[in-house]
Design a protein that fits this description.
The protein has a two-stranded antiparallel ribbon. A two-stranded antiparallel sheet has the order 3-4. A hairpin with a 6-residue loop joins strand 3 and strand 4. By secondary structure, the chain is an all-alpha fold.
Length: about 425
């Protein structure tokens, strides 16, 4: 990494064995994720190709294909949908529906969105493996093949990503798609492809809009790469101009989409949302975002512990949240991520994490009903590399123990959630 990176630069030994090595590694983890997630899905539902209880994106894709901005066929459940002038709308942006539209053409509204989640979740793992490889190639965060394998296993099976993929209702599926978009943006940045980076961020904007605030991280990675290759600031910024124009167009189109639905470019439908009763009182008093929610959200993200139970094992999880340090103990290394040796790299990644966490910590809910803290998954592609930096980019016995504990905790948490809330 040289002086700028705070560590010694080295080549990647695996690349010397042939150009197909990265593809083989990514394929291996895609298949591992596919098999484990599909088996968990089958154990949960008794089917490999099941549809979720809230297949909103499938039904909204059907509406869009019919040229409608409202649901032309109502989904089987209506929790959280928007009712405006007697019509039902999706309150999340529609990119996941656009993504599934070709499959809906073939399979109709019976498309098994749970299996779509399994495919995308496994693909997330393959992309994360590619991200680790790119970070090593660019001298940002070193890792060898064994370390990349362990970290990718942690991504797939040691974080809340696992329960999100297996549960696969509308809310969880939106996050699986968001993670996919964030990973693509990071990979495009490290490949020196700013237009592709912007496209991926537009996809994020059109899925979970606030997560586009992650953009500082891919931008920082792009500039890191350009500087390592001797590029000037003028040249690097000039290459970003088409990407910036694409981002502005993405924002304008989303505003026009909401204006067409609700007559107001800045109305996403939340004002008319059929939200759960546990949120209604606070929404009417404080609105969607307020400092009033900060203490509860901080607790859910950082402090919340399991709750006592009268039955063995005498403890269970709270659907309102669980500290990320307990749900994924490997995240304890986040506390060391800003150490001097890798502070420049950590600063780039934290610049993407913190802006996303601001609205998360000020919003009306903690992410409930959930296992762990599901909103933290939006920045999981950054949190794990940050934890890796904090671990000194090597696995000690303690690090391996934390990794194993993370996988065990998320296996237990996934089982608890799908057996308690997702049936």
């Amino acid at each position: 990494m040289g002086a700028a990176g705070g560590a010694t630069q080295r080549t990647v030994p695996t690349l010397g064995r042939g150009k197909d090595v990265p593809t083989r590694g990514a394929t291996r983890f895609f298949l591992a994720g596919l098999v484990v997630y599909a088996c968990a899905q089958w154990l949960h539902t008794g089917q490999l190709f099941a549809q979720s209880h809230w297949p909103y994106y499938v039904y909204y894709a059907h509406a869009l294909l019919d040229g409608q901005l409202h649901f032309d066929v109502l989904p089987p459940a209506a929790l959280d949908l928007v009712v405006y002038h007697g019509r039902a709308y999706l309150y999340h942006p529609p990119f996941p529906s656009l993504l599934m539209a070709p499959a809906v053409v073939v399979f109709g509204i019976g498309l098994p969105d749970r299996f779509v989640s399994v495919l995308l979740g496994a693909l997330d793992g393959a992309l994360f493996y590619g991200l680790l490889l790119a970070l090593d190639r660019e001298g940002f965060a070193r890792s060898d093949e064994r370390e990349r394998g362990l970290l990718t296993a942690l991504f797939l099976f040691g974080t809340v990503h696992e329960y999100l993929v297996v549960t696969a209702n509308h809310w969880e599926l939106s996050q699986v798609v968001t993670i996919w978009g964030v990973l693509l943006a990071l990979l495009a940045a490290l490949a020196g492809r700013p237009v592709a980076m912007a496209l991926a961020l537009v996809a994020v904007l059109w899925t979970r809009s606030h997560v586009v605030l992650v953009a500082s991280a891919p931008l920082g990675l792009y500039l890191w790469r350009e500087r390592r290759r001797g590029g000037t600031w003028d040249t690097s910024l000039r290459r970003l101009a088409p990407a910036a124009a694409l981002g502005v167009a993405g924002v304008a189109l989303l505003l026009a989409f909401d204006a067409a639905r609700f007559g107001n470019a800045f109305e996403t439908g939340t004002s008319y949302q059929n939200m759960h009763g546990m949120f209604r009182t606070n929404f009417e008093r404080y609105g969607l975002f307020d400092l009033h929610y900060l203490p509860r959200n901080l607790n859910a993200l950082l402090i919340a512990t399991p709750i006592a139970s009268a039955r063995f094992p005498f403890a269970t999880f709270s659907p309102h949240g669980l500290s990320i340090f307990l749900a994924t103990p490997f995240y304890l290394y986040l506390l060391r991520s800003l150490r001097r040796e890798t502070r420049p790299q950590a600063a780039i990644l934290w610049a993407g994490v913190v802006p996303v966490l601001v609205p998360v910590l000020l919003t009306i809910g903690t992410g409930e009903i959930q296992f762990g803290h599901r909103y933290s998954a939006d920045v999981q592609p950054l949190l794990l590399p940050l934890a890796w930096l904090g671990a000194g980019m090597r696995f000690t016995r303690t690090g391996l123990a934390l990794l194993v504990a993370s996988i065990a905790m998320n296996a237990l948490g996934t089982w608890w959630f799908v057996s308690t809330y997702a049936n």
